[in-house]
Amino acid sequence: MATCSSLTLHHRCWSRLDLPWRPPRLMLNFNSVSATTTVATSSLAGKAPFERCSSGRIGIRMCSRKSKWIIKRCSTNPFVVVDDEKYGNKQVVSVTPSLYEYILGNVREPEILRQLREETASLHGSQMQVSPDQAQLLAMLVQILMAERCIEVGVYTGYSSLAVALVLPESGRLVACERDAKALEVAKKYYERAGVLHKVDVKYGLAADVLKSLILNGEACSYDFAFVDAEKRKNQEYFELLLQLVKVGGLIVIDNVLWHGKVCDPMVNDVKTVSIRNFNKRLLEDKRVSISMVGDALGGHLGAGGVGGYLALGGYDLQIKLIFAKGIFFIISSCSYN
Ligand SMILES: C[S@@+](CC[C@H](N)C(=O)[O-])C[C@H]1O[C@@H](n2cnc3c(N)ncnc32)[C@H](O)[C@@H]1O
User: Fold this and answer.
1) Do 140 and 223 share a domain, yes or no?
2) N or C: which end of the chain has fewer CB within 10 A?
3) Looking at the predicted complex, does its ipTM rise above 0.95?
4) Residue (of 258, 259, 275, 216) closest to 241 by Cα position
5) What is an example of a GO molecular function annotated in this UniProt entry (predicted)?
């Protein structure tokens, strides 16, 4: 694969969108929705009794009267409100189990993905699989980007990679990195069943090694999209390697950046949590990238009939606001490699 100059790549990729400015590389941190939902749910258990709030709704005040966190009960659905004056007293709603069911009920999950999800459910590690709404979001992002060359780091049985491969054009290619041979067998079976095996370049081995070999192979700045969902402690390494592989205007998505909500809990200091916390902090300070995090608490999802959010274009920097997306952390790069 020939190494292309950034300018060529930039024009090739973005002229299709007819943008008058130089687009930066994009990066997206993608937090597990189901994980944060679990946190919100469990926080309801065994807490103080309900009381009537000023709004007239039935609710619970947690911890103390001074607490900024109020759990209210509206109809039958409890939801969490962040009541913070610093942010204009915005009410931030958490995804409850019933709301999450509703969201899932609005996902157009292809039959082949449903079959894969059901087969995976009985396997060890099934909780690692992205949820249908996450997969739908990934696929839509690939479509928005008109991506042709993609990378997935952490395939497992292939749910997210299959979602991506299904929307890639016939000429598209997805490099799928996974170190678990057994899980890969399931993934390959479903790529074949779905008729997308020819689009997927399965790489069995350690993801960092695979990414390094792609760079050595002259494939820097030639990928449109990457999804990272593997060893959390290696996120920084994956990020640095992907920053070289993904071209200007491309998008990198990182899963699990809130890590079941543990990142904001100073009492949690296990190795994984600390490394995700450090990774997020480094990205925040990384001048090569612009970032935008959309928290799970915003709820909602990307509408199937359109973007469900919008692209706001402003000068040199591309800003993406997928305002109905959840658990998402966009990092938009000004790219120093090109
Ligand atoms: C969270 S799962 C991926 C789930 C997948 N995205 C899906 O939707 O089904 C993480 C996967 O990353 C793989 N993994 C972890 N560390 C890895 C590494 N260093 N190299 C390659 N794969 C790795 C694990 O074997 C596991 O299958």
Assistant:
1) yes
2) N
3) yes
4) 216
5) S-adenosylmethionine-dependent methyltransferase activity
